[in-house]
Amino acid sequence: MVVRVVTDSTAYLPAEVAYAASLRVVPLTVTVSGRDGREGIDVTPADVARALGERRVTVTTSRPAPAEFAHAYRELLDGGASGVVSVHLSARLSGTYESALLAAEEFGDRVRVVDSASAGMAVGFVAIAACDVAAAGGDVEAVRTAALAAAGRISTLFYVDTLEFLRRGGRISAASALLGTALAVKPILHVVRGEVVLREKVRTSARALARLADLAAETADESDVDIGIQHLGAADRAKALHDSLVQRFGRRAHNVYLSEVGAVVAAHTGPGVIGVAVYRHA
Q1: What's the confidence (pLDDT) of residue 113?
Q2: Which of 26, 110, 138, 278 is the 20 to 30 Å CA partner of 158?
Q3: From CA 209, how far away is CA 127, in angstroms rounded?
Q4: Same domain, 114 and 183
């Protein structure tokens, strides 16, 4: 009997990585012009990018219902799991963590819920760290502790072409969005204690990419790392950042993933976003 790990669809790990770790993924919902779809199943990043490019189309996102988490927990426990650790998107960015907590109440100490205090592939790195301890035979408290420790070794940085989408979704203040627009700057943001915070303002997208690489190196210090690079509609620039980081980190980079960001994050950042998650090994 082993502990199983659950996460939500904003973890954005490659499917083969999630499968190898026996990671259970519960999808968030994306609504495009009144039509609901499950992230990664019914709605793709390309769907969101097209919708955001049309003036009269609205895109919103919503958390899974507690019943969806409860179903996943019950299925895993009934299938022989000794416990479940559920790792999720920052509670300050989404109600997903709250839904998981409500569902966990039904199962007592057998289910523990962890706020990753981050977003995107950073959530995935925390979940995989938990899976590693579970696979090694750790009990539910050991797996939870590993997830919390991993969350403390994650840094998330990203560049957006405009702050407007983050402002619309309430993920950044109107004042910060107005400042970026008024000065015609290219913002670099990061996630601090679960919130999106403006890190730097640069004048061009090329400079923003160079700064992303610099900041990723700074946050890694001298540690070995895993890196996740994600984008929406910016494949060439994301590949350039990937190549720069691979060269810069060399053998210290154990796993480097490059992919398109999922539909939920895409809805709140807009086309052109490029993000990098750096997970420092213990």
Answers
A1: 98
A2: 26
A3: 27
A4: no
Residue 170 pLDDT = 57
Secondary-structure breakdown of the chain: helix, strand, coil percentages, each rounded to the nearest 5: 45, 25, 30
**Helix locations, 160-234, DSSP H:** 164-168, 174-182, 205-220
Same domain, 68 and 21: yes
Q: Are 163 and 172 in contact, with CB atoms under 8 Å apart?
A: yes
Who has greater pLDDT, 167 or 235?
235
Torsion sign, CA atoms 264, 206, 167, 93: positive
| Tally of domains within the chain | 2
Residue 34 lies in a domain: no
Q: Judge whether residue 148 has pLDDT over 60.
A: yes
Residue 64 has phi, psi (to 5 degrees) of -65, 150
Residue 145, Cβ density class (10 Å: 0-12 exposed, 13-18 middle, ≥19 buried): middle
CB 63 within 8 A of CB 26: no
Res 174 pLDDT > 50: no
pTM of the predicted model as reported, rounded to 2 decimal places: 0.92
